[in-house]
Specification:
The structure is a homodimer of 322-residue chains.
Chain A: H1 2-8, H2 22-26, H3 34-39, E1 46-47, E2 54-59, E3 67-72, H4 78-89, E4 97-101, E5 106-110, E6 137-138, E7 149-150, E8 160-164, E9 167-172, E10 177-180, E11 186-189, E12 203-206, E13 219-226, H5 228-232, E14 251-258, E15 270-273, H6 278-288, E16 310-312
Antiparallel strand pairs in A: 1-15, 2-3, 2-14, 3-13, 4-5, 4-14, 5-12, 6-10, 7-8, 8-9, 9-10, 11-12, 11-13, 15-16
């Protein structure tokens, strides 16, 4: 019982494919469960993967299940997204490695010899060595065009939060700025002290409590849509700040491809829920107002406590013979 | 460079033993760094482990480094703390297993056969099968006696937050209640649908974004002081809700001991920073106001974004001969 019950506490957005446990169905609920809302969602509330904005990373130590799917956010980081596309097209990361895993913070990958000009992997044609920082965008860039869905819930990190094109967003109307929030699974571009020193060659994914203090300090380039478990369950590095002591401790990257360069038959059949759909709004509300196992309903969510669902692309409906 | 730099972004409270990278020392800072504050902290701001409230868990698959140190919170869950002490004294968990690891949520351990009355491990003498729920305590229980340090920063999950005896605490003055907040590394007692159905035999630790929606819904019994990386880096279970499909996928628990039952010479030499010390207040402030690598200072923290530091017990100062 306890197994089932604790699980109910979070069977919400994190695993939309999850069937509602029988026990939950029997328990009284003030609202529909996330599973019920997702089951009732129309096909038009889901979108496919954008081949020009999706990366497929395969880890070398994977037992056939180490695929990480990352969606880029060109609306928030156009320069970095373009550079990352060029890097992926050229196979820049193929054979490189995960160099750092710091518990409750980030998993970081890139060129282990990146600091050594003599040994560093050269940038391919079409990739820029230097890019402007893209820490925020003008607020009006995340309006209707991006289908911005604002959260009524207040938080302390930013005056305004919500979701745009599947990404968690924070904004400051007074400053006229919006930016991607550092939530679990978000992907950013490592930089040195100079704000404009990131070029997308070295990337990190958040694997712990949202480090919102990084917001507006570094360029966020996208989020992991699927495969976080392959990045978050890696052994932590034991050197300073989670770097690996020895090269053999690193997890190798087999390859990183842009989805556009993957044969259509090989592409993952995955869909992402549209965050400007009523299904998403209902899911957020189901997350605020919990029933069943819950004896206290929080009546609140924050932008990093709700993960935008993905699902396997459903089969085409059968066609009548013509 | 990027390695160092991204790291600076978080070299704060998470790893107090960490020497400040040279680059950081050169960079201008509005406040002292966490490392500088910790280096200057007087011995009186640190406390040792309480043998009656500390658990040592050793994972069976550990290469000699799988020790997890958990501190119990009897002020918040006296009944569960007492039961957990009795269970540990009797070696209840020895040879049991980690049964569930759900990405961005929890790692859970206990008796894999706990649901099967015929196979379940019997409770030892002195352990209760049934306990009252301990979801919150009267607000006045976390006043001066607990050295409650209130955070001025507002958040959306609770009207008041702060720290008491090293634990992140949330409170509602109108309701006159206080409770332990579900932050990364916090340990709770799994329950079924009945609020009073937990007895501490099945425990979980938070390994992802703080699931604050669980606050006031389940009994929180303490937090992991050291060894989170051994719980958070485990392979995720692939069955529903992160349970393992096959028994052989589970990580075994070698043993769980109460520190009081461990020979003094074998006890870990670890200290915890007192959260009613000025050192902790300074660390929180250094976390709010960042310098060096940061171009934007958040000016804010929340109760789950600052981890109370531990450190190896420093050697005794040399004694003059008598």
């Amino acid at each position: 019982m306890k197994h089932l019950a604790l699980a109910l506490a979070i069977a919400g957005l994190l695993n939309p494919a999850l069937a509602a446990p029988k026990k939950a169905a029997k328990a009284p609920k003030p609202t529909k469960t996330a599973q019920e809302i997702l089951a009732a969602s129309p096909a038009s509330h889901w979108r496919g993967l954008d081949p020009e904005n999706t990366l497929l990373m395969e880890l070398a130590n994977s037992q056939g299940n180490g695929q990480v799917i990352i969606e880029l956010a060109p609306r928030f980081a156009p320069g970095h997204a373009a550079n990352i596309r060029a890097l992926a097209r050229a196979g820049y990361w193929d054979g490189l490695a995960i160099v750092r895993v710091q518990d409750n913070f980030v998993t970081q990958w890139g060129d282990p010899d990146g600091e050594d000009a003599a040994k560093a992997r050269p940038l391919p044609a079409g990739a820029q060595a230097k890019l402007p920082a893209e820490f925020s965008v003008p607020l009006d860039r995340i309006g209707k065009a991006a289908g911005f869905t604002r959260l009524p819930d207040k938080e302390g990190w930013a005056p305004r939060t919500g979701f745009a094109e599947g990404f968690p967003v924070a904004a400051d109307p007074k400053a006229g700025k919006a930016w991607l929030a550092h939530c679990y699974g978000m992907v950013g571009a490592g930089r040195s002290d100079a704000p404009d020193s990131s070029n997308g060659t070295e990337l990190y994914a958040v694997i712990g409590q949202a480090p919102r203090g990084l917001d507006l300090n570094i360029t966020v380039v996208g989020r992991v849509l699927k495969g976080m478990e392959h990045l978050a369950a890696l052994p932590r590095g034991t050197a300073a700040m989670g770097f690996y002591d020895k090269p053999e401790q690193r997890t190798g990257i087999q390859r990183v491809r842009l989805l556009a360069n993957v044969a259509p038959t090989e592409r993952p059949a995955l869909q992402v829920l549209k965050t400007d759909s009523s299904t998403w709004t209902q899911l957020l509300d189901a997350r605020r107002h919990r029933g069943g196992w819950f004896v206290h309903s929080p009546g609140y969510i924050d932008v990093c406590s709700a993960t935008v669902p993905t699902r396997p692309t459903p089969p085409e409906p059968a066609q009548a013979p013509r």
